[in-house]
Amino acid sequence: MAKPVTLTHSTAQQSAGPALWRQYYELTKPKVVMLLLLTALVGMCMATPNLVEARILIAGLFGIGLLASSAAVINHVVDRRIDSMMARTYNRPVAKGRIGITQALGFATVLGTLGYVCLSLWVNPLTALLTLGSLVGYAGIYTLFLKRATPQNIVIGGLAGAAPPLLGWTAVTGAVHPHALLLVLLVFTWTPPHFWALAIHRRREYANANIPMLPVTHGVAFTKTWVLGYTALLALVGFLPYLVGMSHLIYLLGSSVLNLMFIWYAWQLKFSNDERWAMKTFRFSIVHLMVLFVVLLIDHYLPVTL
Ligand code: HEM
Ligand SMILES: CC(C)=CCC/C(C)=C/CC/C(C)=C/COP(=O)(O)OP(=O)(O)O
Predict the structure, then answer these.
(1) CATH number of the domain within which 75 lies
(2) CB contact at 8 A, 81 and 199
(3) Is 183 exposed, middle or buried (0-12, 13-18, 19+ CB in 10 A)?
(4) Residue 187 beta carbon below 6 angstroms from any ligand 1 atom
(5) What's the CA-to-centroid distance between 251 and ligand 2, angstroms?
(6) Residue 7 placed within a domain
(7) What is the position in ligand 1's atom list of the atom closest to the CA of 39?
(8) Is position 282 within any domain?
(9) 176, 210, 237 — which closes off a domain?
(10) Do 237 and 267 fall into the same domain?
């Protein structure tokens, strides 16, 4: 039976809350969106041997960022009930009632419309449509349906979060290229260990909110095995950009080190009894993806070969 979390702050502290603009800002999941935009930027740069045109760079990142932010705001509205049951999320603006549903949905509509118009007018219709598709994938399919339906929720839903390198690529070329899909595959394979490491740490909260995350439905040991499995798979996928000639030696070296480190974290998570490895692995996953995409970028502009 789902129970609301026990609140520990005084009522006065809760009702004060942060400044209004800060709460709207928080609704957009800014740190997640920043990392999504880094992957989109790398997708843009890798789509061309030349420098990316300033109009595409600015309007593209702006539009993708606005639509991703809009998706994040909708996620706060749809998830307000389950967010209020988990210690990690109970204090979120909509879950806490500091921002109303109408206001949040209005904010999401403004962000989404501006983002779509920006991409349609100054980038291209394909990028606008694919980005809108990612919004629907995350805010609609993942949040509204998959999250509550299956422990494979984040594997399938991960496609929306993995899309930005492709969105960046199509912004520059107007077409889908297999190399762009390879970048999507990297983020797609990275997502399960990223999220399941956190879900292991937060499994009791997910169970309390009746969300069928893998550690809740199949247990911690099973989830740890799959985290390790996906890091191994990611290491294999990580060779593909080099093998198909998209990337060169700097990437090969950098990605190998990062992927081996990720496997090491997952190994510790699986075989050490120290509970702290779950959050250590989650935090490392973010550094891993960030550095991996920076390495892709460096390698693109500095193509060292044997
Ligand atoms: C379905 C796919 C994904 C799921 C279910 C997921 C889940 C989560 C969750 C629950 C958190 C919150 C941790 C907390 O509040 O302490 C988080 C944090 C984060 N995620 Fe993901 N994530 C996904 C995909 C991605 C993608 C694709 C990116 C970027 C490319 C990303 C980047 C981040 C970052 C940067 C944080 C840290 C945010 C912060 O510290 O405020 N995530 N993720
Ligand atoms: C247009 C576009 C590129 C859209 C992508 C949108 C986006 C923000 C993807 C990131 C995925 C993410 C943060 C999932 C966590 O949701 P959760 O509900 O499981 O986590 P929570 O409990 O922290 O809310």
Answers:
(1) 1.10.357.140
(2) no
(3) buried
(4) yes
(5) 27
(6) no
(7) 30
(8) yes
(9) 176
(10) yes
